[in-house]
């Protein structure tokens, strides 16, 4: 068996190789310093997500109460997003992004035929997602259709007009 090194491929890979340097006055162990850096990185990314993805780059409110409400709701959303990311890190979902996970779940559809709710069958991936998040699988016998909203204003009867 013979092999050869493709110099062009090696050169291309070496163009993007870099060094990772951590300096610390307090931590002597390299692995401990790396672990602290990664933990800090998780917090930094959380705040970046908090600021950018949840729309808090600019608050655009005119009162302290509204600002506190908006920050509180965004904080709850950040907690939920962090929990979702922790679940995604499991072996089953390692290659799935949050966007792909949400896209997979948006394909869930329920239709109403003759007053009976019909849920399209769950795919294997949708079932696994629901199970890993602790969401009970739907019971197809107890589904109820959404109530149709009546549009327009309610007309008064002749008795009500008097």
* Unreliable stretches covering 5 or more consecutive residues: none
Radius of gyration: 26 Å
Tell me about the biggest sheet? 2 strands, antiparallel
- The total count of helices amounts to 6
Spatial shape: extended
Distance between the termini: 100 Å
Order of helices and strands: HHHHEEHH
Mean pLDDT: 80
Number of beta strands: 2
The helix fraction, in percent, is 40-55%
Strand content: under 5%
- What is the SS-derived class? mainly alpha
Strand order of the largest sheet: 1-2
Q: Your description of this structure?
A:
By secondary structure, this protein is mostly helical. It has a domain at 27-99 and 120-136. 49% of the residues lie in helices and 5% in strands. It has helices spanning 7-15, 30-52, 64-88, 98-106, 124-132, 158-161, and strands at residues 110-113, 116-119. A two-stranded antiparallel ribbon has the order 1-2. The longest helix is centred in the middle third of the chain and has 25 residues, at 64-88. The radius of gyration is 26 Å and the shape is extended. The protein starts with 6 loop residues before the first helix and ends with a helix. 1% of the residues are buried. The model has no long low-confidence stretch (mean pLDDT 80).
């Amino acid at each position: 068996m013979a092999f050869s090194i493709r110099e062009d491929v090696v050169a291309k890979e070496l163009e993007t190789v870099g060094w990772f340097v951590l300096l610390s006055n307090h931590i002597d162990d390299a692995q401990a310093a790396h672990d602290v850096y990664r933990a800090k990185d998780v917090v930094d990314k959380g705040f970046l997500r908090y600021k950018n993805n949840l729309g808090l780059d600019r608050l655009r409110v005119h009162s302290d109460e509204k600002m506190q409400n908006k920050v509180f709701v965004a904080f709850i959303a950040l907690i939920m997003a962090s929990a979702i990311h922790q679940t995604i890190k499991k072996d089953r979902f390692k290659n799935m992004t949050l966007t792909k996970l949400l896209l997979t779940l948006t394909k869930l559809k329920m239709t109403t035929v003759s007053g009976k709710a019909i849920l399209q069958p769950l795919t294997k991936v949708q079932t696994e997602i629901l199970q890993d998040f602790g969401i009970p699988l739907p019971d197809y016998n107890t589904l109820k259709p959404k109530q149709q909203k009546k549009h327009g204003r309610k007309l008064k009867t002749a008795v009500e007009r008097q």
